[in-house]
Amino acid sequence: MTRTDLQPVAFPTERTCPFSPPPKLTELRDEHPVSRLAYPDGTDGWLVTGYAAARAVLNDPRFSSRGEHRRMAVGEGAPGPTRPGVFIFMDPPEHSRFRKLFTGEFTVRRTRNLEPKVERITADRIAAMRDIGPPVDLVREFALPIPSLVICELLGVPYEDHAFFQRHSETMLDYDRSMDEVVEAFQLMAEFLTRLVRLKRERPQDDLLSRVAASDLTDEEAAGSAMLVLTAGHETTAKMLGLGTYLLLSRPEQLALLRKDPSLIDGAVEEMLRYLSIVQFGIIRGATQDVELEGRRIRAGEVVTVALSAANRDGDAFQDPDALDLTRSAGRHLGFGYGVHQCVGQQLARVEMRVAFGQLIREFPGLHLAAAPDEIETTHLSSMYGVRRLPVGW
Q1: Residues of the chain with pLDDT under 70
Q2: What phi and psi, each to the nearest 5 degrees, are found at residue 306?
Q3: pLDDT at res. 4
Q4: Residue 67: its pLDDT value, please?
Q5: 14 vs 74, 102, 202, 353, 370, CA distance in Å?
Q6: DSSP 92-126
Q7: Distance separating alpha carbons of residues 250 and 245, to the nearest angstrom
Q8: What DSSP letter does each residue of 167-207 carry, written as one string?
Q9: CB 3.0–4.6 Å: which of 60, 223, 307, 364 could bond 194 by disulfide?
């Protein structure tokens, strides 16, 4: 089939199961791993749904991450502003200059050293849940506070400000918000973090933001990179903890496996990352030259959206991909992306999920949903997919 035979489609958003990608994404992938995509701004690009094609795009320097290639996959607005220092919208070597400031902070060894702190924070949240008594909103009392507390301590952001950045980071990621709301959230976060960077330059402490502030970055660049790490460092893990708990409570046979053998937790986390793929509307890249991909010719200047949720359910990469199997070896998943832009904080996220899920399962053997499934609202128009509330009892 030639490229002129392809009819562009809108990015599918309608789900029939809260834990699975929209069926239309699966249909598109099964027809061909690379399809034409119609963006809401009236331009056409490409949608990658196959696992091999997704890895190829994310690992190919001919596909750029620069901000000018950004497109909204869904919604009516334009992409939010690109702040200085937000290095996910950069290519090497500029990207490398920023990323290297953080890679040493998130190594396997250093994040494992944080495990006692994560255990303490998680234990405190479980104690708080017991004090409140059932039913409890697990998102508010457990899923959001744990990664927020951890990333605040790591960066050196006062935790009393966590409600501020939670609210504004959620706005920045919500495709249902107006552009004015998104721009305002960006601006308020940038001003807050710029003030904090200047304070760290004057009175440095033993925290990540002080070390970033001591680099050769400008105040605005340091604040932008901190905004990225702060937002990604709590929003993604919080969504996984909330949605992952909902998934486990909806799959009692899989939850029973974890209760019986807690040593399965590392692999279970990887499988949930694969199965849920919370990056909802894909990763955007722009072709800097003509590229042949799975028999399709992508021309220089065209935009490509990589649908991780479809790629992580590709039967060519994973046996019986639509089944949740916590004993599966799912380490090849794309839940953290792939290539030079693979999530810099992925090791910390793994520690947080392993500790939080492990303690939650152990401390609440009778944990159950305290609401009907049709009462549980998902973030269906946020770039990060999850549940807004999760009432639970025990």
Answers
A1: 1-5, 76-81, 162, 165-166, 169-170, 172-179
A2: -100, 115
A3: 43
A4: 86
A5: 12, 37, 50, 28, 25
A6: TTHHHHHHHHHHGGG-HHHHHHTHHHHHHHHHHHH
A7: 8
A8: HHHHHHHBTTS-HHHHHHHHHHHHHHHHHHHHHHHHS--SS
A9: 223
Contact 196, 86 (CB under 8 A): no
* Structure confidence at residue 231 (pLDDT): 79
Supply the CATH classification number for the domain 3-393.
1.10.630.10
For residue 1, the model assigns a pLDDT of 40
Q: Which two tokens stand for residue 321?
A: 């991909």
Query: Taking the model in full, what pTM does it have?
Result: 0.92
Report the C-alpha gap between 150 and 283 in whole angstroms: 26
What's the CA gap between 212 and 195, in Å, rounded? 14
Q: Assign 316 to helix, strand or coil.
A: coil
Residues 6+ apart with CB under 8 A from 319: none
Domain ranges of the chain: 3-393
Question: Which residues touch 191 (CB under 8 Å, ≥6 apart)?
Answer: none
DSSP state at residue 143: I
Helices (H), the chain: 23-31, 51-58, 94-103, 108-113, 115-132, 138, 145-155, 162-173, 179-202, 208-213, 219-250, 252-260, 265-276, 308-311, 346-363
Q: How many residues does the chain have?
A: 394
Interatomic CA distance for residues 100 and 88, integer angstroms: 13
Q: CB of 364 within 8 A of CB of 358?
A: no
Going by their DSSP bridges, the two strands 303-306 and 283-287 should be labelled as antiparallel
Q: How far apart are CA 361 and CA 305, in angstroms?
A: 36
Cα torsion angle, 390, 278, 106, 363, sign? positive
